[in-house]
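Appendix B, example 12.
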Amino acid sequence: PSRSFYGNNRLLTSQIVSYYEPINQCKKELPEYFNFASDVLDEWARLEKDGRKPANPAFWWVNDEGEEVKWSFEELGSLSRKAANVLSGACGLQRGDRVIAVLPRVPEWWLLNVACMRTGIVLIPGTSQLTAKDISYRLQASKAKCIITSDTLAPAVESVLPGSQFLKSKLIVGQGSRAGWLNFKELL
């Protein structure tokens, strides 16, 4: 049996497992370096563009009001490269640096996640339910150089920032602006 998505056959679990079986049996060479964003997402975008893979959304988000965001693999790849440029350029981050994201599950959360994979930046996800004490602890324990949050959560996050000695940049996701914060949407 196959699972269809808008009439297109998708990889089944058994097909995915069979692809990795030679690797598990040491019959297929593992790459020295593996990056999910470039080795999987970008490859799927290329296969779709070449017509060798049916077009399916890579990302499909719907909020409680019914608003949708839908990205193809090519769009997700392009947007994640732009987000990676924001993190490495405007935020001054490098491979191995840590970023704390205190965001609700908005499309930018996923975009930043892929951008971090792409650049080798370590993403430390945090929910919007974290208290100031939780955020402060995570900042100090992780030695994060950047914090990312929404415009609505920024005041709570900002209350603990003076004690963070490693923080280099603050990135806000949303429509509003805040003194001392970079705006992700503007930079993107």
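The chain has one domain: 34-183. The longest strand covers residues 98-102.
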